[in-house]
Design brief:
With 242 residues, the chain is of the alpha/beta class. It is 42% helix and 14% strand.
């Protein structure tokens, strides 16, 4: 990369959950840093709005609507094939997609909702990562970054499948790090502080929750982990909630 070039110049970054609070903010930050951003999400109208804002900041993005709840491994393989055929490369995968229906006592919870939370927040991320690995391995330096929640908070009562999945994600991060430690693909996590998002609003009312900040405050940290300088966070979690 030329001296003074943006941190992600010439890179292709896939943002899963690009219509959400952190995902959309990170997508805009990646575009501003020179990346071609692939916007993955299930809410087409929101994705279109993110697309318009991202397109004004950097290279033309690619829109890829996909519902992670119903997507199969074959769907993720098709996504990876399209990225290779249309863009020729993939340098980073940022996982921001999340599913959370609200705080619910375990004894009263809907089993289907519990299973959906485990799938969207953990299994789907694993499947997507697995499908993208062959393409990521072709890059000289590639990054997989998982957005994580604070286990001390979501490991408390009533967080259900979402809280359980957060512990699983940290296990997935550690396992992938040890498997990929000698190759070009590095794995890390980012744990933002409280953010003003729809997901958080399902757990706290506005009156009792005065600490959240806009997700954009954490977007540059996502860029940092995806860029070459993020190598120092290989196998680690950047904890911004401290």
């Amino acid at each position: 990369m030329a001296v003074g070039a943006p941190a992600l110049a010439g890179k292709v970054i896939l943002v899963a959950g690009a219509a959400g609070g952190l995902g959309s903010a990170a997508a805009r930050a990646c575009a501003s840093a020179g990346a071609t951003v692939v916007l993955l999400g299930r809410k087409v109208a929101k994705l279109n709005r993110v697309y318009d804002s991202v397109a004004q900041l950097g290279p033309e993005p690619l829109l890829y609507p996909l519902d992670l709840e119903g997507a199969t491994p074959d769907d993720y393989a098709a996504l990876a094939e399209r990225l290779e055929s249309e863009l020729g490369r993939l340098d980073g995968l940022l996982h921001c997609a999340a599913d959370f229906v609200g705080l619910t006592p375990f004894a009263l919870g809907d089993p289907a909702a519990f299973a959906r939370a485990i799938h969207v927040n953990l299994t789907a991320r694993a499947w997507l990562t697995q499908a993208c690995l062959p393409l990521l391995r072709k890059a000289e330096d590639a990054a997989v970054v998982f957005a994580l929640d604070d286990p001390q908070r979501v490991g408390q009562a009533y967080w259900g499948g979402y809280g359980v999945a957060q512990y699983g994600l940290r296990g997935l991060l550690d396992s992938l790090h040890h498997e990929l430690g000698n190759g070009p693909v590095r794995v890390s996590g980012i744990q933002p502080g409280p953010m003003r998002t729809g997901l958080r609003a399902r757990a706290y009312t506005h009156e009792e929750d005065t600490t959240p900040v806009e997700p954009a405050q954490y977007a540059e940290a996502c860029v940092q982990l995806l860029a070459a300088d993020g190598v120092r966070w290989r196998g680690k979690v950047l904890d911004l909630a401290m």
